[in-house]
Amino acid sequence: xxxxxxxxxxxxxxxxxxxxxxxxxxxxxxxxxxxxxxxxxxxxxxxxxxxxxxxxxxxxxxxxxxxxxxxxxxxxxxxxxxxxxxxxxxxxxxxxxxxxxxxxxxxxxxxxxxxxxxxxxxxxxxxxxxxxxxxxxxxxxxxxxxxxxxxxxxxxxxxxxxxxxxxxxxxxxxxxxxxxxxxxxxxxxxxxxxxxxxxxxxxxxxxxxxxxxxxxxxxxxxxxxxxxxxxxxxxxxxxxxxxxxxxxxxxxxxxxxxxxxxxxxxxxxxxxxxxxxxxxxxxxxxxxxxxxxxxxxxxxxxxxxxxxxxxxxxxxxxxxxxxxxxxxxxxxxxxxxxxxxxxxxxxxxxxxxxxxxxxxxxxxxxxxxxxxxxxxxxxxxxxxxxxxxxxxxxxxxxxxxxxxxxxxxxxxxxxxxxxxxxxxxxxxxxxxxxxxxxxxxxxxxxxxxxxxxxxxxxxxxxxxxxxxxxxxxxxxxxxxxxxxxxxxxxxxxxxxxxxxxxxxxxxxxxxxxxxxxxxxxxxxxxxxxxxxxxxxxxxxxxxxxxxxxxxxxxxxxxxxxxxxxxxxxxxxxxxxxxxxxxxxxxxxxxxxxxxxxxxxxxxxxxx
Length: 607
Prior knowledge:
Layout: H1 2-60, H2 66-80, E1 84-87, E2 93-96, H3 113-120, E3 124-128, E4 137-145, E5 155-162, H4 164-218, H5 233-292, H6 296-310, E6 315-321, E7 328-334, E8 343-344, H7 350-354, E9 358-360, E10 377-384, E11 387-395, H8 402-437, H9 447-464, E12 468-475, H10 478-504, E13 510-515, E14 518-523, H11 528-543, E15 548-549, E16 552-553, E17 559-566, H12 573-589, E18 595-597
């Protein structure tokens, strides 16, 4: 069935090609027919325009003699068998093939083409519809000028000439050509179909034989051959097929032998790949957990648990270089006998000093931090983004032979690469978070962090039916510090006040630089009176600060404080901050250096 389908496919393609050629011939013929009809109509219009212009030229000399003009029109009708009408500038017929219409206004131009030609002197074509010819006759109107010989005289009328007979004659000639074109196209189509049939019969038989032979060859019958006595391309294809079949039979034996050899190699490689796949899967799980860790401590816990799975029977530790870069400390350990030396200088490890892994099996040089331990070990540096972060230290267990330690070293190298990148990402994430929520000048939290925490604290206070207080603190006359000591002096005041406020807050309180010289203090939980007492204590303590800059005493600092309490003064975070801000404004208006509670009467005498 497959062979028959392939042969039919060849026949179908040949028939399809013949059909496409036939369609192309038909399209060309249709285009030629359309061109003949268009050319016939264009020629008729051009010939009519030339004839009408000649008639207008001849009639110009007879305008003053209407009888002579009518006789001229009658003669044209007898000779050419077509209607001619001459009108004056008012479209009144002054001569006509039908003498009975002389004196009547010409009204058969529905688009007033005659009137337009009388005005602008341009020839126009139109269809005249009358009761005698309901389908219409084609007309051309040309201007009739005095002094026609010069072609520049005034328009004295127009000549209207029927040119339907001209067009009919030319269309008749075009139809003769069209019949010839159609006959030629039909002959081409028949020739294409006949050629495709002959070619199909010539090719289909040999292709059927080749197709069946190819199917036998695909089924493993390498002795299959086809007749190859033809001298054309089909014969060359058959000979090539026979050569291919012989080559395949010869190669079959070699392939079978090679296959058996390959099977043994694949089995060994499969076992190795299975082990590598287990390692990759485990590394993938470790990476997922490390990437999902929020803190370094959580990541170290994950590393400790997974190292036990990667190195069963072995012990070890993950050492991280301190921020000062002068000590290396174990942040995670695992195994039954982890290293006893958990803190040492970086120079005590060959892996850190050389920047590459160090494997100590027997008589190799040992690191000073492992000098007292006789077990074989491996140290792998943790490197990420070009920075060394620490080492992965793996101690061999009781079964730690040389081959096993080399395999452990290979596995630990990949593990160290994953660990280093994960720890670097965590450190970077912590640094970026700190930058996003800290004010760089004072080191306090910024406005964004305070607004987020305030929303959370209000939510918690609602659930616990507790109170929280918000204080807005503003440095009095801060502009004078900038004007007197420059912006560096103003920055010194902000830093000093920020350090003081940071020392005054409890563990659950939040102090932030809200903007400019304004600070926001969040007390949670608290009471109105308790918060007010804290605010007064802070305000009085600020007066005792002594700020120096460039060996100069900048003078005393005072602050104004506005306070609002949730839920007494506002139910939501934004409204609570607004209330504290209003109270701060009242404190400023009352003379500064005072604390004002939102909604309370301001004591004008306080200072």
